[in-house]
Amino acid sequence: MFDNPLTDKAYQVGSKTFDELLAVESVEVSYGPIRALYGISLTVGSGETIALIGPNGAGKTSLLNAVIGMRRPSQGRVRWKGRDITGLPPQQRIRLGMALVPEHRRILGTLTVEENLLVGAITLPRRLRQTRADELMERFDILGRKRSQRAGLLSGGEAQQLAIARALMASPDLLLMDEPTLGLAPLVAAQVFELIDELRRSGMTLIVVEQNARRALESADSACILRTGQIVEQGPAQQIAARDDIFGSFLGDTPVDGDAGSPDGRRQTGQAPTKSGHD
Length: 279
Fold this sequence. Notes:
- By secondary structure, the protein is α/β, with parallel strands linked by helices.
- It has helices at 60-68, 90-96, 113-119, 126-139, 141-145, 156-168, 186-201, 213-218, 237-241, 244-251; strands at residues 10-13, 16-31, 34-45, 49-53, 75-80, 83-84, 98-101, 174-178, 205-209, 222-227, 230-236.
- Helix 3 packs parallel to helix 6 and helix 6 (156-168) packs parallel to helix 7.
- The protein is globular.
- The two termini are 22 Å apart.
């Protein structure tokens, strides 16, 4: 994501080498007069899992929205496989290979489980949609057993599985996940993290926004900590997880004094803005 650059298109994180898939360059996002992101730059490699963590209002969801095209940056650009896609709407980015699992799942409760999946297949040729839905209902066996049930009757964990499966319908190259364990019981949240781990092992590229920071770091290659619309720390996930001072300074676990540098010796500098970003 950031250290030991090898070429313009490849870089190293710890012992892993990634080819650049997505680049966010000096992106700023505003909601009217309120700025949510301040010059965010981030590189995501093919097959990399990045955890975006930080307090509420840090700008994590705004960053995902800028990537998927739901919020156009006021400054900066987004590149996808080397192509500038800053001006493209979400539907075109989805066709290029992105998918989003939104916060609060946002499944269509009046449709059946199977119908929800088929909605997610809109970018696929019609002849492939049912086959893909059947594959995912086999992979997520609870969805297969409830394929004809209205989605609004699913439990929270089942609904989250449906939201993830729906996003996977188009076989995306990049999956964005916004608070995938929000509101779930601990046991169900653990099952969602197991699914994230499975997707990571399969080679899926993931950007995961998650309030359970310590568990998110266990499932990630790299991590970025956002605060008031800025990246204040970034590094290999294992190094970030080992630093209790980071959790105290930026995530509120324990009080600490002073300010610490990032694991790779670099961090964004400058006074933090006084207005909090939008999540």
